Amino acid sequence: MGTTPMLVSRRLAGLEAELGARLFHRTTRSLSLTPEGEAFLPHAVTLMDARDSAFDSVSSGGSGLSGVLKITAPNVIGHSVVVPVVAALIADNPALRVDLTLGDGVIDIATAGLDVAVRVAPMKPSDMIATKVADNPFTLIASPGYVARFGKPATAEDLVSHPCIKLHAMDNWPFTGGGERHPVRISGPLSASTVDAVRAACIAGVGIAMLTYWDVHKLIASGALQRIVLADVEPLEVGIWAVFPTRTQMPARVRAFIDALRNRFLAESSAPGSEHAGPF
After folding, report:
1. Where are the alpha helices (DSSP H) in the chain?
2. CATH number at residue 148
3. Which of 6, 119, 134, 168 is the most exposed place for a label (fewest CB within 10 A)?
4. Domain extent for 92
5. Residues 244, 254 contacting (CB under 8 angstroms)
6. What digits encode the pLDDT tens for the residues 213-263?
7. Residue 137 CB contacts under 8 Å (≥ 6 apart), including other chains
8. Torsion sign (Cα): 219, 222, 228, 231
């Protein structure tokens, strides 16, 4: 921060005097927060976020985006969409740095100190502080080789008799019909922990899989996988959401990332050769 430890200590002592509370336990070897410090910390972070947002709102227009943009996203969408988006942002904004965490687990973004999480979920805007960037319905798929050998199920009841490839902890596939949810319990020879593994097994003809549209749209367009449509139910509609940790003013770098992400999805869905039956 361009200052000395002595000045930081002096400012901290002044803050403690103003608050009338001790914020840190100090020894010659360690420094840790007191309960009062733990309680004050989120408010301090909010104040710093507001300061950054205020500076961003004035300074980003002429000199470009700056600071560190911390993002988490699922593996497949992270590699195929988020990485190209942040690469373009970095190229256009030399002062911007990006810290990207990819993984299919859900991270507590507030605790992890992240700016935004890209998530695939059937949530509504009221569920979290979030905005939708693209539709992403679940899609039933199989390889042409599998279809040639075993055919396609026509109904949910038919699906039960087909070998299915499932993600861990997803024994029931989410469908809707008549305005209600109709989970269908499936079984098969293979379950896997990642979308990549399920997709690869499906291409190899192991069975039918259910993944979201943006995980498989290029493979459907190329003919490597075929979409399966059931007559009595439809896969659950989900979306790709940008989720934020607080309701305070969003920094310019976060707004720019969300806009670029949304534009990327729109461009890919309307590009020549994209699948006709996409979500848009």
Report:
1. 5-19, 35-63, 75-77, 83-92, 109-112, 144-150, 156-160, 195-203, 213-222, 252-270
2. 3.40.190.290
3. 6
4. 45-131+247-270
5. yes
6. 999 998 999 999 999 999 999 998 889 999 988 766 678 899 999 999 999
7. 212, 213, 235, 236, 237, 238, 279
8. positive
